[in-house]
Recover the amino acids of this structure.
């Protein structure tokens, strides 16, 4: 069969995750060339290698070829297998880096996925596990991925550079997804948050909470920010603190913002008050952007819309992030799917910036891995 | 006689008449008043038994629930594709005749030779595609997959044939389409009774196969070689009103039953290499699901391909538009069968084919396109070919551009693109002026209108001119050129339509330029005439005339040159606008702008007045356009552009700044707000272009990335490909977070206010605002009293009613009458509320099933409504080509045999494949040998499967699942049981049915379908195992422990099996303990009992088997015409052996031999001494113990003699020998002597005895005589004495 013919080719290591995830879901092989070819340190980094290893663990029959220098990667996807898996993530990137892709793949496994991920739970680059738990999981529930076993548990918290965090993610398997119509974001009825601190004074969390509340109280009184101080083995290997905020609306959409302290030994020390305030501002920015889906989860929502039945799905988003834009292009090349994009100008209403209404017809994807009993 | 025949009148017992009579009767009895029996006789309907009632209720509920199907979203398109009617039957049963009759019935046309599918309009809302199916099993399988309705012809004079049953079974596996039996040859029955019996017999057999009550049609006989009209008419009615159930496979996969095929290969390639791979285009109605461009398809009988291009064509057999009348008129009864040569005009994407062979009526029927077609006939190449060959050079140094360059982009121009961009202009301006300046906004709108008006004028005048020209052209020049011109001009029109959308950025300049444009357009068109027709003189003069008409006085001589350039440019620009796909419209506009610039540059020479304006225009739009071109590539670039834009609005900015400075705000804050404004602008800018931004630039990696691709597109247009900066971006951080580049200052009140309404504390929409909704409710339902609390709620009423109420309240105490009326009012209100509640409650009581159904219905509505208002070009991009469209599918790299051996009788199906259905892997299925198939199937024998769209040969392994989930290999399929089958082949979704056949070639006497089943699982590895027994032998036996050897070869192997269970043949169980050092591979094992040396120890293990990776698609369509049913693939070993005459070498050990039993030797019984002692004497062994060996001391030594002694001994020996000899002799003599003596003595004795005997005899005689005498004497004496 002409598997070689319908393979896709890309250059550069950016958007590596999207490409590999979409390749796995669509069954089309992908070749990525010139990975940091001009760099002093060419080839794949540790965290990317770790990601590829993770893919290898959760699939069956994947073929991965990497050249000597690591600048070229050929990936021929197998079938998603799932089951109980453990994985040590690289500490260069947060667990969120890996978890985002797992969220895309987990509903389409042969056996329900139950994975233990170890590494950095909260860092400044990737969406933290807290945020994903608060925003991505409810989003998946909208698509009919639900059940008792659907959970994300933070066992240990690990901050960069040491890591040492542990997360358990389990997800049930679905054969088909439901189409969604998320066009009304609703109004924000409450704001919740989690101020965490590990290997620093527990007072830090309280200071963060106070400063964040002082900003948000101007908008809504229903705010509760939990403080989470982990001790002993649960506190990972490095000190740090941070805050993640989630705004919930009346129609059940979640918008989030987060901020973490600088890793130990890198950059200037951050005052918890500043961090709290900045994070609150970030949340307001996110609210300004608006939409029914958080800016980090835009691509996840669009992917699951694509993989739905041959029905129309709609979602209202804030401005599209560069990552999402690239993701849309990839969706087109992997699934030949184009979204109808309509801008909804903000108008006179005081509801933040412009919104984008994304509409598509699902490709009629069905889980080919799931066994028929 | 007649009176005899008359039937007696029978009273009606049912029906309306009988009912009426009954009613009248009841009325006569004065019972009719009670309309309901229930009322009339209530006792009869009273509850007799609660249990029985409950049961009957249960039963009805059960029956109701049984009817439920899982609701599915209704995805049938508004204009469905024709229904595929497969006419199937064994040869000589009357298939072709039936098809001919049906076509004649529907269309009043007679088709003599039918090849391939025939599409006809059968009713106002229904079309049919009729296709014939012979008894080639390949064809049967393929058509069963696409059929909606099967007409199964059965020769009643013969009865059912095997093909019929085979086809029924094929249908059952691949989703069961509607099946209608048609009995033919009924006229061969002479006796009526025989006919009736046969009909009944066949009907019942048919029912058992399909379902009880399935329709079986009778075609009684032929009249002039055709079936009877009335019967055919009835059959046609049946077909047209038939309803269909959606079939899972068909609704989830797009497919095309091709009714036309064209070879598009370059003839030169064929000439050089006749075997080269072909490029073909296939035409047909798309059915099933949406088909996307570039997707994977499978052609049964040919192989897998990727769609290289797909486009939709006008429907060749369209349904009538208006449905005023009940039936179709003759014109609307269309028939379309290009393979049979029906349907005179064939439209293609780029050409129109006219079948001129002997046709006389077509020319009138063509209608509006008549002219076009006429003109086409005279040309020798198609429009597209000409377009392709035309080349344009924009700049002197650039490469000439051909249409293929533009086509290469693979882009199509949808109209809505323009609308969007029209919008773009407005959006952009709004962003610049913002909310502050509304007057400016309104100004702009005015300008817009004006420019649009101008445009309209432009357009109309242009059109007029064109029409005139066309008239001339048709008269004067060759028609082909005229056609070409028209197309070009149409394109121009398009482009001109686009102009104002962009030009509205300038105000007063616009009008002048538009006017200019008008003049220039006229010139340009005349210019073009020059180029195409080459009749400069006439047209030149005409151009002058037109130019003067426009009201300007240009120096024609100079402007002509410029205009020529411009027209070329326009042409250039127009091309991509029409042909480009997603998003080049923006670029096109940019280029148009440029062209306009150039034109205005030309005008500059004459119009010194406009100079300034032109300058301005030059500077500004060029920047805009460049910004737009680069915009998506790089955000930073864009911002810089916007900054430029912003400069123009500096006034406003400065005002702002001033205010801020005066208020004494911080410096950085001011910068911040500017940044925020920029970000805002950027977003505004980006939003309308999103589509282009996203889909315009596809960062796919081309091999010849560096520069080559750009040149390919010809100098002017550049594909928005990742630049050097983008290359940098290609290696940047992979992160999904959307960082805030320019944060707002959330301390500012207005910034804070901008999101106020996002919170529940903010303002709500009118329909959701609680206060407003309440108010509305009050208005609706007025005042009411809360009965629990006793509060009286009063609604707001109109002023006068309020007054009235006030008055009432005042009066209340005075007037008791009023009070009563108020009470009544109150009661009325309560009743109304109750009714409302009841209604709500009843409606709300919906089951889960109803909810689900409602949800599906809603989704279906949404699906239909979402893209309804868009034109097809745009729709196709979003949802793919929808079913019901007539599409043209281009496929490359098709084997040349497909074209060379093309046989229109065989169906060509393009089956769309889902995601990763083109990949291969291990497929596991549940399989059952067909009960009518005579043999059982053997593992590793190649067999042909039909799964999904595909037919292919593969090597399956059969297995059965043990209770613990182990999949154990089977050598053969079970006779009457399901088993598993696993093979390596294409991945097909779970739940897909399949069938297996041993061979597709020729006709086998028996039933051909070997097995059927369903796909269960797909994977990249399998776990089928076979049994393996390892044996070993004890070489040392202790009590329960033994040392075993011969089972393994090394200690390592033993280590792997430590703890494994082993067993002896006699049934003693044990366990492997540890490897031993001494013989390699030996181990210590412990058992539950002591072993014997003669025991054999074995271990049961499982060995994984591998499946041969063999997948061979059945390429039956590639065979030569007439040999299409002779495809044969890999042969089984049995067939090979038979063909080569190789006999199987039997294993010697497996042969049967006579059993030879060895004599068993038992050891003697040994009784221990102690036991012997204890035994009673009777049981003691009696045999004396053997004398033991003589002890050494008692043995006598050997004597060695001296020679002398030896001599003596020898002498003595000799003497004794002599003596003994003598003695012996003597003994013998004596013995003889004795014998003699004994004999003599015996003789003597005998004689003596004889003598004694005689003597005794004598004596006894004498004695007797004496006695007698004595007796005599005594008698005498006594007598005497007595005397």
């Amino acid at each position: 069969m002409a598997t070689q013919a319908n393979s896709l080719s890309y250059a550069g290591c950016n958007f590596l995750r999207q490409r590999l995830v979409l390749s796995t879901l669509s069954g089309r092989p992908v070749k990525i060339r010139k990975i940091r070819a001009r760099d002093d340190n060419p080839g794949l980094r540790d965290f990317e290698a770790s990601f590829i290893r993770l893919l290898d663990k959760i699939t069956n029959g994947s073929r991965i070829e990497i050249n000597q220098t690591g600048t070229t990667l050929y990936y021929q996807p197998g079938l998603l297998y799932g089951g109980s898996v453990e994985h040590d993530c690289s500490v260069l990137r947060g667990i969120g880096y890996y978890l985002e892709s797992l969220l895309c793949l987990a509903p389409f496994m042969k056996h329900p996925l139950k994975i233990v991920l170890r590494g950095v739970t909260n860092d400044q680059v990737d969406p933290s596990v807290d945020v994903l738990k608060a925003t991505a999981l409810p989003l998946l529930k909208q698509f009919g991925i639900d059940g008792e076993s659907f959970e994300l548990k933070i066992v240990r918290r690990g901050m960069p550079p040491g890591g040492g965090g542990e997360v358990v993610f389990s997800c049930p398997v679905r054969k088909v997804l439901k189409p969604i119509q998320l066009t009304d974001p609703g109004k924000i009825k409450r704001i919740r948050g989690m101020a965490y601190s590990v290997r620093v004074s527990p007072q830090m969390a309280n200071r963060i909470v106070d400063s964040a509340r002082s900003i948000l109280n101007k908008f809504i009184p229903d705010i509760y920010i939990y403080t989470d101080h982990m001790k002993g083995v649960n506190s990972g290997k490095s000190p740090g603190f941070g805050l993640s905020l989630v705004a919930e609306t009346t129609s059940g959409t979640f918008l989030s913002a987060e901020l973490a302290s600088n890793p130990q030994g890198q950059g200037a020390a951050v005052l918890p008050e500043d961090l709290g305030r900045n994070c609150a501002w970030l949340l307001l920015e996110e609210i300004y952007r608006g939409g029914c889906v958080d800016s980090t989860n835009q691509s996840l929502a669009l992917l699951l819309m694509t993989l739905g039945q041959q029905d129309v799905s709609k979602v209202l988003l804030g401005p599209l992030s560069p990552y999402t834009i690239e993701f849309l292009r990839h969706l087109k090349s992997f699934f030949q799917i184009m979204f109808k994009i309509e801008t909804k100008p903000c108008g006179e209403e005081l509801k933040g910036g412009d919104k984008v209404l994304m509409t598509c017809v699902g490709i009629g994807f069905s889980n080919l891995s799931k066994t028929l009993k | 006689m007649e009176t005899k025949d008359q039937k007696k009148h029978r009273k009606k017992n049912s029906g309306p008449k009988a009912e009426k009579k009954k009613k009248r009767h009841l009325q006569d009895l004065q019972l009719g008043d009670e309309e309901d029996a229930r009322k009339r006789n209530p006792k009869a309907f009273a509850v007799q038994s609660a249990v029985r009632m409950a049961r009957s209720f249960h039963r009805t509920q059960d029956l109701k629930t049984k009817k439920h199907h899982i609701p599915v979203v209704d995805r049938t398109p508004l204009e469905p594709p024709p229904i595929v009617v497969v006419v199937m039957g064994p040869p000589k049963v009357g298939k072709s005749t039936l098809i001919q009759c049906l076509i004649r019935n529907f269309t009043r046309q007679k088709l003599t030779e039918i090849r391939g599918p025939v599409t006809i309009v059968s009713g106002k809302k229904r079309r049919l595609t009729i296709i014939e199916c012979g008894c080639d099993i390949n064809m049967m399988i393929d058509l069963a997959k696409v059929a909606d309705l099967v007409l199964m012809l059965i020769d009643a004079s013969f009865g059912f044939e095997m093909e019929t049953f085979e086809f029924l079974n094929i249908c059952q596996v691949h989703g069961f389409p509607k099946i209608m039996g048609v009995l033919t040859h009924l006229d061969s029955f002479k006796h009526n009774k025989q006919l009736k019996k046969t009909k009944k017999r066949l009907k019942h057999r048919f029912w058992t196969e399909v379902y009880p009550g399935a329709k079986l049609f009778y075609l009684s006989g032929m009249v002039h070689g055709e079936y009877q009209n009335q019967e055919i008419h009835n059959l046609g009615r049946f077909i047209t009103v038939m309803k269909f159930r959606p079939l899972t496979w068909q609704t989830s996969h797009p497919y095309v039953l091709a009714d036309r095929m064209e070879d598009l290969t370059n003839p030169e390639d064929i000439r050089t290499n006749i075997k080269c791979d072909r490029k073909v285009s296939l035409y047909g109605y798309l059915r099933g699901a949406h088909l996307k461009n570039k997707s994977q398809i499978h052609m049964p009988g040919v192989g897998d391909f990727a769609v290289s291009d797909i486009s939709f064509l006008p429907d060749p057999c369209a349904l009538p538009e208006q449905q005023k009348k009940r039936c179709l008129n003759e014109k609307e009864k269309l028939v379309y069968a290009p393979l049979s040569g029906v349907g005179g005009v064939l439209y293609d994407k780029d050409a129109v084919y006219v079948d001129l062979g002997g046709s006389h009526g077509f020319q009138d029927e063509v209608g509006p396109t008549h002219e076009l077609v006429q003109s086409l006939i005279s040309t020798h190449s198609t429009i597209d070919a000409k377009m392709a060959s035309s080349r344009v050079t924009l700049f002197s140094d650039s490469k000439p551009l051909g249409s293929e360059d533009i086509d290469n982009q693979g882009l199509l121009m949808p109209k809505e693109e323009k609308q969007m961009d029209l919008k773009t202009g407005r959006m952009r301006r709004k962003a610049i002026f913002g909310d502050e300046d509304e007057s400016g906004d309104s100004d702009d709108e005015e300008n817009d209108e004006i420019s649009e008006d101008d445009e309209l004028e432009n357009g109309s005048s242009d059109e007029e001119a064109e029409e005139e020209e066309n008239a001339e052209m048709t008269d004067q020049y060759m028609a082909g050129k005229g056609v070409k011109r028209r197309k070009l001009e149409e394109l121009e029109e398009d482009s001109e339509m686009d102009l104002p959308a962009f030009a509205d950025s300038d105000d007063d300049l616009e009008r002048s330029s538009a006017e200019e444009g008008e003049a220039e357009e006229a010139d340009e068109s005349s210019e073009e005439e020059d180029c195409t027709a080459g009749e400069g003189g006439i047209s030149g003069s005409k151009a002058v005339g037109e130019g003067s008409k426009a009201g300007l006085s240009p120096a024609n001589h100079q402007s002509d040159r410029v205009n020529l350039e411009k027209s070329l440019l326009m042409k250039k620009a127009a091309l991509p606008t029409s042909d480009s796909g997603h998003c080049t419209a923006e670029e096109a506009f940019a280029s148009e702008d440029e062209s306009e610039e150039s034109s205005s540059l030309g005008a500059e020479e004459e119009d010194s007045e406009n100079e300034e304006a032109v300058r301005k225009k030059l500077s500004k739009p060029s920047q805009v356009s460049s910004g737009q071109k680069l915009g998506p590539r790089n955000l930073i670039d864009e911002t810089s552009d916007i900054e430029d834009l912003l400069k123009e609005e500096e006034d406003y900015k400065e005002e702002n700044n001033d205010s801020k400075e005066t208020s004494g705000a911080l410096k950085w804050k001011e910068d911040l707000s500017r940044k925020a404004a920029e970000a805002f602008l950027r977003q505004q800018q980006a939003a309308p272009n999103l589509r282009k931004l996203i889909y315009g630039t596809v960062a796919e990696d081309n091999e010849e990335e560096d520069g080559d691709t750009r040149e390919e597109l010809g100098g002017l247009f550049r594909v928005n490909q990742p630049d050097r900066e983008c290359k940098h971006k290609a290696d940047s951080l992979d992160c999904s977070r959307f960082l805030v580049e320019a944060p707002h200052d959330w301390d500012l009140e207005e910034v804070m206010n901008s999101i106020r309404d996002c919170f529940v504390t903010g303002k709500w929409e009118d329909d959701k605002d609680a206060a407003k909704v309440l108010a509305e409710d009050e208005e609706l339902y007025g005042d009411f009293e809360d009965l629990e609390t006793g509060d009286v709620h009063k609604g707001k009423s109109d002023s006068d009613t309020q007054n009235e109420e006030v008055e009432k309240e005042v009066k209340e105490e005075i007037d008791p009458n009023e009070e009563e009326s108020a009470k009544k009012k109150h009661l009325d209100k309560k009743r109304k509320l109750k009714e409302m509640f009841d209604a709500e409650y009843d409606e709300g009581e919906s089951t889960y099933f109803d909810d689900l159904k409602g949800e599906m219905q809603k989704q279906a509505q949404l699906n239909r409504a979402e893209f309804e208002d868009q034109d097809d070009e745009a729709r196709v991009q979003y949802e793919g080509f929808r079913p019901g469209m007539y599409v043209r599918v281009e496929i490359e790299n098709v084997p040349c045999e497909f074209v060379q051996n093309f046989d229109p009788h065989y169906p060509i199906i393009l089956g769309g494949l889902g995601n990763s259905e083109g990949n291969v892997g291990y497929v596991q299925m549940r399989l059952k040998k067909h009960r009518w198939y005579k043999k059982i199937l053997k593992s590793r024998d190649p067999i042909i499967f039909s799964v999904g769209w595909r037919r292919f040969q593969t090597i399956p392994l059969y297995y059965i699942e043990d209770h613990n989930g182990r999949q154990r290999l089977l050598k053969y399929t079970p006779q009457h049981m399901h088993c598993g089958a696993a093979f390596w082949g294409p991945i097909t979704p779970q739940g897909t049915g399949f069938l297996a056949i041993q061979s597709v070639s020729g006709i086998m006497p028996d039933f051909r379908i070997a097995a059927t089943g369903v796909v269960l699982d797909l994977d990249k590895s399998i776990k089928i195992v076979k049994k393996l027994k390892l044996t070993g032998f004890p070489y040392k036996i202790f009590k329960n422990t033994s040392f075993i050897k011969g089972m393994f070869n090394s200690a390592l192997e033993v280590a792997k099996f430590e703890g494994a269970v082993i067993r002896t043949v006699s049934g003693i169980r044990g366990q492997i303990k540890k490897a031993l050092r001494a013989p390699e591979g030996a181990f210590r094992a412990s058992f539950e009992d002591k072993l014997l040396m003669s025991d054999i120890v074995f271990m049961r293990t499982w060995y994984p088997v591998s499946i041969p990776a063999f997948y061979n698609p059945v390429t039956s369509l590639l065979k030569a015409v007439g040999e299409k049913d002779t495809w044969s693939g890999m042969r089984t070993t049995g067939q090979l052996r038979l063909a080569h005459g190789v006999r199987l070498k039997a294993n010697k050990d497996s042969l049967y031999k006579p059993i030879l039993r060895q004599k068993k030797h038992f050891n003697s019984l040994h009784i221990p001494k102690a036991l012997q002692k204890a035994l009673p004497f009777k049981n003691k062994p009696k045999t004396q113990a053997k004398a033991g060996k003589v002890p050494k001391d008692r043995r006598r030594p050997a004597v060695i003699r001296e020679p002398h002694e030896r001599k003596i001994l020898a002498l003595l020996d000799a003497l004794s020998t002599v003596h003994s000899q003598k003695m012996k002799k003597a003994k013998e003599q004596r013995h003889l002597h004795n014998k003699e003596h004994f004999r003599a003595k015996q003789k003597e004795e005998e004689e003596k005895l004889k003598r004694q005997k005689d003597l005794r005899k004598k004596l006894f005689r004498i004695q007797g005589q004496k006695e007698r005498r004595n007796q005599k004497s005594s008698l005498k004496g006594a007598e005497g004495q007595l005397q």
In short: The radius of gyration of chain B is 56 Å. The first strand of chain B starts at residue 83 and ends at 88. Residues 1203-1282 of chain B form the longest helix (80 residues).
